[in-house]
Specification:
about 210 residues, Glutaredoxin, Glutathione S-transferase Yfyf (Class Pi), Chain A, domain 2, 2 domains, 9 helices, about 5% strand
């Protein structure tokens, strides 16, 4: 398999975590978003959305959208499972994952931040305030959801799930923007548990071939 991704892309990071948890090997292909590589013909010719990540299977089939890719991998390689065995558990995990993937990430990804700066002429401090506000607000919702559940090591249960694949990249990116993580005990405990796991260490940005100093 080939994974077209960018080391700082949280959506790419999610897929790298899933691949590492599954113990699956892949070729790492860097698409440098900050330099506009995703807009060049070399990439748009194979990625109709012009986004990362893109997973190319051994037969040449190409999959996009991190959540769809992760669920595909989970169905094809069911151990270790990233979704619970029961329907209610799967709904809980998907809800947690979607707080991040659908509520927080879409309004704070790189192309949105660039639009704020370049097109709307928002200054750097205001842009960063925007970012911190929406990440903090979303994580407060995430924390309330965790608090409504039984205590667990990870976001849901005693093994990493799709929710953890989403949480960790969001915390990493939030750290870059100095988001306030205080008062989020369950959220940060889950993050810390994940970062003790070898798969999360292997997938983190600093371990990527295209990581910048």
């Amino acid at each position: 398999m080939k994974l077209y991704n960018y080391f700082r892309s949280s959506a790419s990071f999610r897929v790298r975590i899933a691949l590492a948890l599954k113990g699956l090997d892949y070729e790492y292909h860097s698409v440098h978003l900050a330099k506009g590589a995703h807009k060049l013909p070399a990439y748009t010719d194979i990625a109709v959305e012009g986004l990362v990540p893109l997973l190319e299977l051994d037969d040449g089939t190409r999959l996009t959208q991190s959540m769809a890719i992760i669920e595909y991998l989970d169905e094809l390689h069911p151990e270790p499972a990233l979704l619970p065995a029961n329907a209610l558990g799967r709904a809980r995990v998907r809800a947690l994952a979607q707080i991040i993937a659908c509520e927080i990430h879409p309004i704070n990804n790189l192309r949105v931040l660039k639009y704020l700066s370049k097109d709307l002429k928002v200054d750097e401090d205001t842009k960063n305030t925007w970012y911190r506000h929406w990440v903090r607000s979303g994580l407060e919702s995430f924390e309330r959801q965790l608090a409504s559940q039984a205590p667990s090591t990870y976001c849901f249960g005693e093994t990493p799930t799709l929710a953890d694949c989403c949480l960790v990249p969001q915390i990493f990116n939030g750290q870059r923007f100095n988001v306030d993580f205080s008062g989020l005990p369950r959220t940060m405990a889950a993050f810390e548990a994940c970062m003790k796991h070898p798969a999360f260490q292997k997938a983190q940005p600093s371990a990527c071939p295209d990581a910048e100093a």
